[in-house]
Amino acid sequence: MQLNDRIEDLSEAGHRPVLAEELAGLLEPQPDDTVIDCTFGAGGHARRIAADLGKDALFIGIDLDPLASRYFELFSQRQPFRCRFIYGNYADALGQLGEKGLAADLVYLDLGVSSMQVDRPERGFSYSYNAPLDMRMDRGNRVTARKLVNELEPEELERIFRNYGEERYARQIARRIARERQKEPFETTLQLVDTIKAAIPTPARFGSGHPARRIFQALRIAVNDELGSLSRGLESALAVLAPGGRLGVISFHSLEDRIVKKFFASKTGKCTCPPDFPKCVCRARAELRVITRRPVRPSHKEIGQNPRSQAARLRVAERLG
Ligand SMILES: C[S@@+](CC[C@H](N)C(=O)[O-])C[C@H]1O[C@@H](n2cnc3c(N)ncnc32)[C@H](O)[C@@H]1O
User: Fold this and answer.
1) Which protein residue's CA is at the shortest distance from atom 13 of ligand 1?
2) Atom 18 of ligand 1 has which residue's CA nearest to it?
3) Which of 6, 114, 117, 217 for a ligand 1 pocket mutation test, highest count of atoms within 8 Å of Cβ?
4) Coil, helix or strand for 42?
5) Residue at which a domain ends, from 223, 241, 259
6) Residue 131: inside a domain, yes or no?
C-alpha cells in the first residue's frame, strides 16, 4: 500500500529527529524504564531512546495525529518491550495516566510540527504548495486556518500574527486579509501567500526566509492551541513523573521556550511572594531540579544537515522525591 511505503521511507531514511543524542544524553534512559513520548510523530526520538531500553521497559507514545499511530505500529513491531499508543492531546492523556497511578521515569515532548505533516501538501501546513487552508494536527479539531483567516476580527488576527509569528507587518497583513475576504473568502494556502506578499513592502518580500513563514507559523500555533496544550501538559507531566524521573522539552519558538523555562523555575521552590511581604506565604515547595541551566541548542553540524533544527532549544529537569 502506498501510504505504508511512505511511512517506511520517513521512519528510516528522510526523517532526522532534532537534538536526539542530546535528549538521550540528558534523560539517561535505563533498561527497565517507563517512558512517555508525548509527541510521537514519526518516532524519530522514540527510536533513539528505545535503543537504550531493555525487554522490561514500557514505552507509551502519544499523538493527536492519527498518522502517528501507523508509525507507532512499525516502531512497536521492532521492540522487545511493551508498547502502547494513545491517540489524543498529550495534556489530557498525561492527566489520565497520572490519575491511573502510572509513575513514569522519562517524559519528553518534541513540540511543533512534524515532517510527516509539513511534507504532505494536502494538510495545508506549507506555504510552498497550493492546498486547502487547513493546518490541523487533529482532524477532529473544528478550528482550521481557513476559519480563523475568514472569521476573526482584524485586531485578533493582528494579535496572533504579532504574538505567535513575531511578524513585523502584522497589522498591514491583517487589514489586507480583512479587505480581500470581503471580495472572496480564503480557501487556499497560495491565496493567503499572495495576500501576505501584497501587504508588505517590496524589500521585505526578499528578506530573510519566505515572506509567509511567520504568518503560517502563527496560524498553526493558533489552530492547534499549541501554547495552551503546553502549559497544561507540563503540569500533567510533572504529576505523572516518578521521583528521580526526568522531563525533557524541545521547543522551536521563543514563546514555547519561555513557558518551559518559567514552569521549571516555578517548581524549584523559590519563594514567589512580593519582596515587601514580612514572611513567606506562598509556601513554595521544590518539586523539580533543573538539569540544563541554559537551553541546549543544536550544533553547527546538525543545523547544516537539518536546517529545520536551527530554532530548537532543549530543557531538562528532574523530579525531586
Ligand atoms: C515535531 S513533531 C514530533 C516528531 C517526533 N519527535 C519524531 O521524531 O518523529 C510533533 C508531533 O506532536 C504532535 N502534537 C502536537 N501537539 C500535540 C498535542 N497537544 N498532543 C499530542 N500530540 C501533539 C504532532 O501531531 C506531531 O506529530
Assistant:
1) 39
2) 89
3) 114
4) coil
5) 223
6) no
Q: Return d(Cα 42, Cα 229) in angstroms, integer.
A: 20
Q: How far apart are CA 262 and CA 317, in angstroms?
A: 12
d(CA 158, CA 7): 37
Give the pLDDT means over successive 10-residue stretches in the chain (321 positions).
46 73 98 98 97 98 95 96 97 96 97 86 90 93 96 98 94 97 97 96 77 94 96 97 98 95 93 88 90 97 93 97 82
What residues does ligand 1 touch, defined as CB less than 6 Å away? 15, 17, 39, 41-45, 62-65, 68, 89-91, 110, 112-114, 137, 224, 229
Report residue 237 as a C-alpha cell. Answer: 507531566
Q: Select from 22, 39, 46 the least CA-distant residue to 237.
A: 39
Residue nearest to atom 27 of ligand 1 (CA): 41
Q: How many domains does the chain have?
A: 2
User: What is the whole-number distance in angstroms between the Cα of residue 282 and the centre of ligand 1?
Assistant: 35
Q: Are residues 93 and 11 in the same domain?
A: yes
pTM of the complete model: 0.91
| Longest CA pairwise span in the chain (Å) | 69
Last residue of a domain, one of 223, 238, 258: 223
Describe the chain by its helix, strand, coil percentages, rounded to 5: 50, 15, 35
Spacing, Cα 115 to ligand 1 middle (Å): 10
User: Looking at residue 180, which CATH number applies to its domain?
Assistant: 1.10.150.170
Residues 39 and 55 in one domain: yes
Atom of ligand 1 nearest to the CA of 109: 6
Can you give the residue range of the structural domain that contains 150?
142-223
Same domain for 70 and 208?
no
For residue 265, is it within any domain?
yes
User: So what's the pLDDT on residue 10?
Assistant: 52
Note whether 214 and 249 are same-domain residues. no
